[in-house]
Amino acid sequence: MLKKPFPNKRRNFILISFLLIFISCTKSQEIVPIVPVEPVNSTINLSHFNHLYGEIDLKGEKVGIVHIYSEYPVYEFITATNEGFTCVDDVARSIVMLSKYMEVYGSDANTIERIKKLTKFVLDMQNENGYFNNFLQDDLSINKTYPTSLAELDWWSLRALWGLETAYPLVKSDVILAQRIEDASQKLMVNIKRDVSINNLNIEFINGIETPTWLLHKSAADQSSLLIVGLLKNYERTHDNEVVLLINSLAKGIMVLQKGDADNYPYSAFLSYENLWHAWGNMQSYALLKAGQALNKQEYIDSALKEINNFYPKILKSGFAEAFSIKFNGTYQEIERKKYPQIAYGIEPMVWATAEAYRYNKNAGLLTLTNNLGSWLTGKNDANGAIYNPTTGVCFDGIGSPSEINKNSGAESTIEALLVLLEIEKLK
Question: I need a surface site. Which of 193, 239, 353, 382 has the fewest CB within 10 A?
Fold first, then answer.
């Protein structure tokens, strides 16, 4: 039985009760203006990422790792109790980040070599069951027992797919490594095809909210969107028509979780899971835009553009949130909200979506919206402080309140900030 998607190494706050704020939502005809801000200072500095990066001997080969936690002020490494010091989650997204870096600045031998070593780490973390364990412990043993490291259909296995398929075209001249990627991906895809439903597309209601039952963990649109991105990469390589069926099934479920419209709360937002919206990892619009273009599905593109054009400007005006949940009783109403913490991982999905939308239709307003969202990193945030420092490459771990910036700078924050900045730089 699959676990719900909330357990994750930095997601324990989902298990904490939200601060209850009962809000009666009325119909709004207000047009939200998109006021341009100064373009984001997108100086890309890998210095802090280089600090977090390391190489170790694992299973008889040299592999690349990224330290998970790095604490202010000297940014010493900290091992997460019960978890480990590095993980597939962050290593796989490092592969994606470095591939994006080469898209912007061109290929170079050193970056390719790092991608190869990071890829080998991900490969070495594949469990015999085909899924991936997440954490490596200080003694270099794979953590196979902690809930956020189990080899199952969860965030880390999904990121492994995305990372490996991203690496493949960059490293395929290394015939042995390319074959290892093919084998690992095939083994993982056998599981995904078995465990992800493309039939029995049933609906259930939670707090009056219509929800699909066939996504990952029944209604996890956040994880399902990440899977779509990985599946699209897999399809580019394999041209497997079964993968197309999976993508279409997931896309249909994600669209069920789009609620409201341009005038009615929650303004075309995609819920993340059941009746909950959260910022981190909510890449539904980006996934639908990519799938719509790859598979010639205009309805996916139109659905994504609704969230981007309706919800994103609203959240910019009202202020970013960490999470909220809703109910339906004739109208959609917000019943719970958690404003903090706000983190780079919550900004990146929106920036990637707006940037992709701009590439799709060249609407200048979307370019402005992309910069407005990205400016959270450079000071347009509740704390009125820069989160990313282009001089050092440090991205702080987030905002805890209008007066509190968490100045630690771990792998997730660093990589997600670079993903934001590289996407903006790519548009120039």
Answer: 239
Where exactly are the structural domains of the chain?
48-195
**What is the number of other CB atoms lying within 10 angstroms of the CB of residue 119?**
29
- Return d(Cα 250, Cα 261) in angstroms, integer: 21
> 403 near 383, Cβ under 8 Å?
yes
pLDDT tens, residue by residue, 97-140: 999 999 999 999 999 999 999 999 999 999 999 999 999 999 99
Rounded distance between C-alpha atoms, residue 286 and residue 301, angstroms: 9
Q: Alpha-carbon distance 29 to 18, whole Å?
A: 29
pLDDT band at 3 (very low <50, low <70, confident <90, very high): very low
Range list of β-strands (E), 213-351: 258-259, 269-270, 276-278, 323-328, 332-338
Pairing relationship of beta strands 276-278 and 404-406 according to DSSP bridges: unpaired
| CB burial string 48-84: b at 16+ within 10 A, e below | bbebbbeeeebeeeebbbbbbbbeeeebeeeebeebb
> Percent helix, strand and coil across the chain, each rounded to 5?
45, 15, 35
Structure tokens at 339: 């404003």
Taking only Cα atoms into account, the Rg of the chain, rounded to an integer number of angstroms, comes to: 20
Confidence class for position 197, pLDDT limits 50, 70, 90: confident
Q: How many CB atoms lie within 10 A of CB 257?
A: 26
Is residue 121 within 8 A of residue 60, CB to CB? The reply is no
Task: Specify which residues 333 forms β-bridges with.
Answer: 327
Quote the pLDDT of residue 7: 39
Identify the three-state secondary structure at position 280.
coil
Give buried/exposed letters for 363-372 (b at 16+ CB in 10 A, else e).
eeebbbbbbb
Tell me the HSE value of 111 on the side-chain side, using a 13 A CA sphere.
19
With b for 16 or more beta-carbon neighbours within 10 A and e for fewer, the 282-303 pattern comes to bbbbbbbbbbbbbeebeebbeb
- The answer on pLDDT for 390 being more than 90 is yes
pLDDT value, residue 14: 39
| pLDDT band for position 40 (cuts 50, 70, 90) | low
